């Protein structure tokens, strides 16, 4: 399992906020530095469009070309890049960074997370305490579990994280099928493709297809 090298999961060369990760000894350390990074670098402004019926908090930056649709709620602190879509019914909570061309869609909730450029959570998703790589797509209904049922500290490969909440790391160009659920502290490499209705855990190396096989039986109505 790779838990230190960001380059295994992401191409950060064009990401506007790559300095967030420079002090991280482990990948999950971004959660410790994210609030501080936002406090130092967030300059609230609205360069995009906030449609009537949307709510945008005081500690939010919206980039050019970004549209916040009616019924969306951005609490902040948050930095939303250029040409993003925050769709109807989306909820963006605290400590969120979204790069350019990001989609946070209808009934999707995001908090304490980083979306790299082109990442998409377009329909009925929950993303908490996580990083989505460049051009990652979450199928409708994807749920990122970020809290163990026991409430105990997250331990990864024998390393104590000091965290009670940690979701998923999803590498660039990966795609999860509809209704996928990831357990806390799941790591997916680049170009991981997952069939729908799967439960993921642990480490999945880059360039992997995860397949779920089901048997169906047909019978006559009597």
Automatic annotation (TrEMBL):
The keyword Acyltransferase applies. It comes from the Bacteria. InterPro entries: GlmU-like, GMPPB_C, Trimer_LpxA-like_sf. Keywords: Acyltransferase, Transferase. It holds the Pfam family GMPPB_C. Residues 74-157 form the Mannose-1-phosphate guanyltransferase C-terminal domain. GO terms for molecular function: acyltransferase activity; nucleotidyltransferase activity. This is Mannose-1-phosphate guanyltransferase C-terminal domain-containing protein.
């Amino acid at each position: 399992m790779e838990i230190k090298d960001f380059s295994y999961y992401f191409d950060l060369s064009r990401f506007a906020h790559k300095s967030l990760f420079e002090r991280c000894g482990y990948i999950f350390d971004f959660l410790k530095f994210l609030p501080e990074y936002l406090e130092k670098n967030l300059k609230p402004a609205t360069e995009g469009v906030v449609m009537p019926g949307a709510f945008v908090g005081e500690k939010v930056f919206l980039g050019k070309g970004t549209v916040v649709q009616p019924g969306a709620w951005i609490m902040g602190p948050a930095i939303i890049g250029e040409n993003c879509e925050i769709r109807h019914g989306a909820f963006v909570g605290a400590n969120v960074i979204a790069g350019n061309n990001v989609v946070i869609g209808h009934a999707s909730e995001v908090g304490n997370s980083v979306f790299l450029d082109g990442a998409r959570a377009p329909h009925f998703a929950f993303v908490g305490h996580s990083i989505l790589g460049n051009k990652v797509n979450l199928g409708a209904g994807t749920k990122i579990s970020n809290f163990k049922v026991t409430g105990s500290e997250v331990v990864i490969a024998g390393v104590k994280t000091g965290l009670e909440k940690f979701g998923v790391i999803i590498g660039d160009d990966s795609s999860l099928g509809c209704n996928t659920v990831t357990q806390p502290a799941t790591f997916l490499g680049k170009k991981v493709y997952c069939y729908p209705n799967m439960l993921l855990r642990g480490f999945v190396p880059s360039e992997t297809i995860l397949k779920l096989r089901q048997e169906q039986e047909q019978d006559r109505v009597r």
